[in-house]
Amino acid sequence: MCSLIGLGFLVLGFHSLVAKPFYIPSESMMPGLQVGDHLVVSKYPFGWSYVSPSFHVLPFMNGRVFGHLPERGDIVVLTPPGSNRGGEDLIKRVIGLPGDTIQMIDGRLWLNGKPVKTHDLGTRLIPIDGNFHCDPNDLDRTRAFPGFAGAQVVSRDGKRYCCVHVIRETLPRGRSYETLDFGMSIADNTPSYTVPKGHVFVMGDNRDNSADSRVPIDQNGLGGAIPLENVGGRAEFLTYSLRGNASWNPLTWASDFRSERAGNSLRPLSK
Questions:
Q1: In this prediction, what percent of the chain has a pLDDT beyond 90?
Q2: Catalytically annotated residue among 28, 185, 213, 241
Q3: For this structure, is 43 an active site residue?
Q4: CA pair distance 170, 110, nearest whole angstrom
Q5: What pLDDT score does 85 carry?
Q6: Active-site residue, 20 included
Q7: Does pLDDT of 253 surpass 80?
């Protein structure tokens, strides 16, 4: 019995201080992250804060132990400030650091008064499966976003796909990543915003379907930059991914794996 308790504390300590698994429940970080992805989040790169324990039972406390700033482009897991999300952990990309000025103009990101470099990669077909339905209502919770309306297509072989428009963004120091563009949404034109000291500005890669730092709290967003204390860790790599089509029959489980996604790094590409 004592050994089981000790093992439990060991696992809890590892999850709180070193690394923990994380499951992607929504489409807000597509195309890099899809519903059904399982990944590893490292806890130590930015130091530790009150949100580091696996169970969020601590009240807000200022500061981080051995704290370090994330880099622009890092994918982070965060606990939203206040109660607008009920303590649910989110996963977003760090776009702005303290002192940065962020603005969206006609769907394009501006950083410190200059447009971020983009490269239009055209359209891409993403298979529709048990975990990804490409449903126009999936992300239309607040009527603020267009969802996936009109994105479903059927190929010649009869299989269904989601046709998405992919744009690669490259930040000033050369870190790049892919984003999705579905047309104009309420978050495609925003006022200029300066990130306060001790905060980071985060956005989802599925730009027209992510309630993030651009979006007011009353529209289910984060209402601006989040305190560094609320960053729980950095996303590192995918462990495995599931299509969500498996049944109770174990013979269907192997075919449910998206083998092409296992082991993929989640760090932005660098020049």
A1: 60
A2: 28
A3: no
A4: 11
A5: 44
A6: no
A7: no
